Amino acid sequence: MNLPPKVTERAFARLAEINESGDARPLRVAVAGGGCSGFQYDIRLDQAEADDLVLEGAGQRVVVDPVSLPYLAGAIIDFADELIGARFVIDNPNASSSCGCGTSFSI
């Protein structure tokens, strides 16, 4: 059985900051075809669907759809605030390679 993705405390904390100013929506992490390496991450605020995996922490929710789940098995969803910018990042053990910006990967 594949391990579900994990969300760091830092990612939940940043999501809580984002949701302070409006209605609290979950962060959707999905995988779609495309990008320079074959697959790309789609990370956005969205509504949860009935068949989503829901990961909860710090009063926040991160959701993953069933189609994306195998591609994100064992992945770590984090938030990075670096000189090049602040963004949610994914450390994906299933990716055999990824592009320089970290939004595209191949398996």
Automatic annotation (TrEMBL):
<dbReference type="InterPro" id="IPR000361">
    <property type="entry name" value="ATAP_core_dom"/>
</dbReference>
<protein>
    <submittedName>
        <fullName>Iron-sulfur cluster insertion protein ErpA</fullName>
    </submittedName>
</protein>
<dbReference type="InterPro" id="IPR017870">
    <property type="entry name" value="FeS_cluster_insertion_CS"/>
</dbReference>
<dbReference type="GO" id="GO:0051537">
    <property type="term" value="F:2 iron, 2 sulfur cluster binding"/>
</dbReference>
<feature type="domain" description="Core">
    <location>
        <begin position="6"/>
        <end position="102"/>
    </location>
</feature>
<dbReference type="InterPro" id="IPR016092">
    <property type="entry name" value="ATAP"/>
</dbReference>
<dbReference type="GO" id="GO:0051539">
    <property type="term" value="F:4 iron, 4 sulfur cluster binding"/>
</dbReference>
<dbReference type="GO" id="GO:0005506">
    <property type="term" value="F:iron ion binding"/>
</dbReference>
<dbReference type="GO" id="GO:0016226">
    <property type="term" value="P:iron-sulfur cluster assembly"/>
</dbReference>
<dbReference type="InterPro" id="IPR035903">
    <property type="entry name" value="HesB-like_dom_sf"/>
</dbReference>
<dbReference type="Pfam" id="PF01521">
    <property type="entry name" value="Fe-S_biosyn"/>
</dbReference>
